[in-house]
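seq:
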Amino acid sequence: MNAQSPACHAIILAGGSGTRLWPISRSLFPKQLIALNGDLTLLQETLKRALTHFRPDHIHVVTNEEHVFEVRAQARSLDPRLEAGVIAEPRGRNTLPAILLGLDAAWRATGGETPPTIAVFPSDHMLGDIPRWQAALDEATRLADDGWFVTFGVPPTHPETGYGYIRRGDSIADRSFEVEGFVEKPDHATATGYLKDGRYFWNSGMFVFNGQSLIEAVHAHQSDLGHWWESRGDRPLIEGYTSIPSISVDYGIMEHASRIAVVEADFGWDDLGSWEALYRLGKKDESGCVRRGDTMALDCENSMLFSRGGKLVGIGLKDIVAVQTRDATLVCALDKTQRVKDVVELLKAESSSLAEVHLTVHRPWGSYTVLEEGKLFKIKRITVLPGARLSLQMHHHRSEHWVVVSGAALVQVGETETLLTENQWAVIPRGAMHRLSNPGKIPLELIEVQSGPYLEEDDIVRFEDVYGRKPK
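struct:
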């Protein structure tokens, strides 16, 4: 194992939505926050890997305001020192502004005169060989310190149409090459030609930059972002973030820079970006099937069954992916899994909540699960963590009835506070200011019955919140 880098900082990008893994991954709780390949979530796997090479105070995670509390909780559970490095974007602006946010945090942390070298990683990739990853990262850092803009290229193993490609040029060192060009996601025939050619890598989306070189490139090629960067002074760079251009680092910098290097990423990389990838990497039975959750397969071949809902049974399936949650089911040909993102776009066009949220929704204070809903009612199971409290709020269109299942609930309605325990209940009238807290040492579980003509989550007037969430 390599020693931790004393100078280089890691920036982990954790704001994606993971649309190709719907219905497990949804925009308000995407794949990087989910455990798909073991006990740790993909974000935690990324952080654990980063800790083998970077000091905890040199690891910065850039996410968004919707995910920041869950990201902080997952970072804290892995190593409490990591929580301080989590940064929230007020609005998604693609990868280049997110990287600059991380660079700003890294520079302020060092207190030096020049910005540090940074290594940029997505939060949802899998790497199989950590020592080889560390060696490639060392090589990339040396190149970046010599003024190269460095990316990592994965030797392709099949004609993948879901990745961009990098065409390599002359050799720089044993594992690194000059970049001749970047190629968009190809069709199958073109990808097959790239595989036979031998000069093409998959674009992994990982980078290493000298901080000063990156800032100079931003000024040269993205003047709006350059002005925004220069306006930072003593102010947090987050100010003015919602008005800057949305642009990726690939389009904004890598397609314009002159000294671009690619380091061979021969360390078992996969982006876990589709159901086909999870099938390909999964442990298969004697019929070539991968099964996760409460599933049964009869006379099935080369298929994947994945259940986070009830019992999922497949009979006579061949080359099929079947995924079940409590509120959605996906059945897809194994070679068509890239089209799952099209389903998500159609759901968004229909204004369906299935593209956005799960039945269980995570909040900084705990979570709630929708158990049943109809035209004028909704029933939830609410879990409040020990010591946590919801915001002080009111609703224009609904009343609520709370029944405590376990634990202790401190209920405030207007100016009156009442302590409730198991089997006790409270009524929250429409328009009443109220708050729910857990003063106990164990999680509070309760059932909430909402009634009224409008029951969506945007009917919240928030007056006060200990987590700093903005009023709705």
